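Our consortium's second objective concerns turning raw sequence data into structural hypotheses that experimental partners can test. To show how far this objective has progressed, the report includes one record in full. It was chosen at random from the queue rather than selected for favorable results. The single chain below, 274 residues long, was entered without modification.
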Amino acid sequence: MTSSRARSRRRALKGGGAQADAAATSPESGGEGLPEKANRAGLHHARRRGWYHPVSFWESLSIRPRFYSAVLVGSLAYGLLPDSLALAVRAAITWDLGGLTYLFLALRLDFTSDAAKIQKRAARRDDSRLVILTIILLAIAASFAAIMAVGLEAKLPETSAKEKMALAALALVTLIISWSVTQIAFALHYAHAFYRPDPGSDAGRGLEFPGCERPDYWDFLYFATSIGAASQTSDTLVKSHALRRLVTLHAVVSFFFNTAVLALTVNIAASLTG
């Protein structure tokens, strides 16, 4: 008798639990089911992964060879430069050498690829948005550091005319390298977002190039330089919400670079005529 009552109680508890689970996952209950919650959590994690890809150190080296090579070259250059140079000048030269390394590796490793190779590469690696943002901030900082170096050093009474010209040339080279690195970084990210969107994002195939269904890196560089030079998208159509946000960031960065160019021009004119 006791065992029969225990079995009945267990069946009742089991049935009640099943009904509770059904109510939790039922749309009529107004609640949110566990599968839906798990799916939303997965999408949230995927969106966060778009900003930072948590991988091991050695895997990160293979994923981002351009970035780490540029950091290594820049660090070595900074250590070898004489302490007699002004800090802003050392920072500008360090950035220039690191930026040239980044540009060389990008053109050598990436821009010789066709659409099939881009798609294969995008499936296994991409610079996260955090890396892209880091490169952009470094580019802007280096640009304004070079401008500050020109302005401050040129005003010193012991600075000769030749040194003023050298500082002006350094600032100009730094701006060109910074602008080029920014456009290359955005072009690579546009390409990888096009061929391999982040989970939970609508970035995949979010760009439409007239007469081109499988664009290569040069097509994405054309798109990036259009924004970088004129802050507009030219004839390329942006069809994705995620890429519109990235394009907006790109346009804002372009504004700062244009401002830097204007400030550099005024600084050079003032230093050479002062």
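The partners drew two points from this record. The first helix runs from residue 2 to 25. The mean pLDDT is 74. Both points have been shared with the crystallography group to help prioritize constructs.
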